[in-house]
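Section 4.2 – Deliverable D4.2 (structural model, holo form)

The reporting period included a commitment to supply a predicted holo structure for the target in complex with NDP. Inputs used:
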Amino acid sequence: MTRTVPFLARMQDDERAAWMEALPAALAAAGLADVAVHPLDRLDTDARQAARVAIVANPEPADLLELPNLVWVQSLWAGVERLLSELPPSALQIVRMTDPQMAETMAEAVLAWTLYLHRDMPRYRAQQRARVWHELPLRLPSQRRIGLLGLGTLGRAAARRLIANGFAVAGWSRTPADVAGVDCHHGPSGLVAVLERADIAVALLPLTAETRGLLDKTRMALLPRGAAVINFARGPILDTDALRDLLDSGHLSHAVLDVFEHEPLPADDPLWAHPQITVLPHISAPTTPQTAAKIAADNLAAFFATGAIPQAVDRARGY
Ligand code: NDP
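Output (structure tokens):
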């Protein structure tokens, strides 16, 4: 008999097609050739009642309430903040995607945009537009201090790449961390220490009640004059009005934003046209279907074989 796993995803059609190819192949490879993945609207009442696990990608949280016997969900995305904040309290376990490939993709993005800022590309681009031939002073990577906000799976992978490229890296986490080559800080006073010494601050934090609005005007003003900001985490972590004020006043030099309060970023949003802001369409670390589908399928196979649920996020902590 075919077993059905609901698939609740809000994604582009081409992305959906890639997953619909990768997931069945990975399930078959994991010994689950009898498991079919179907969108919620294709499931009848019996299938909805029978579902104990679902695969999700940025779903409407309320849709999960259509599956009353769900025990856990496997998210294909690493960020699950909407599920955590909008689902009513219950025993439902939320497992986010932790894929070593995603960490490497994020580390590559952090390195790429750090190099963009480090080698003054925004200013050379502006100089070209104004036909200005002017050599800016060269700084070595060892003279460029990077402050990583978040030392989890992604932050640690980013730290490795930055250190390998010679940058001076400090990091901040909620609890004490020990990461080779990183000047580690934690807690409120640790944030001040990291920001005060960061030429480039990189946000790699989950969005939680504690991190929402974390990078406000006061905290971003702690960055040294001329510093830059990269937000690859979640939009609401950073106050974009405060950011624009600090860029316009000359305190900050540039910002690279991959994530926004409202995505897609509305066409009339002033961030699009700001000369010192680089807008990216949430692309710093997309999930790779080939590797992530295998992780999801292996997790499902373990659950069907033994009832084991992979490590879930801590709903009270928010990540
Ligand atoms: P992890 O859970 O592995 O790490 C989170 C880190 O943030 C930990 O170091 C944690 O501290 C720290 N942290 C959490 N809350 C606080 C706080 N209040 N104060 C200080 N530090 C805090 O997450 P990942 O590294 O896997 O991912 C981070 C986020 O990146 C995801 O939640 C997601 O939102 C975003 N993301 C963005 C993508 C994109 O394409 N733009 C792609 C993938 C993810 P501690 O170590 O003490 O627990």
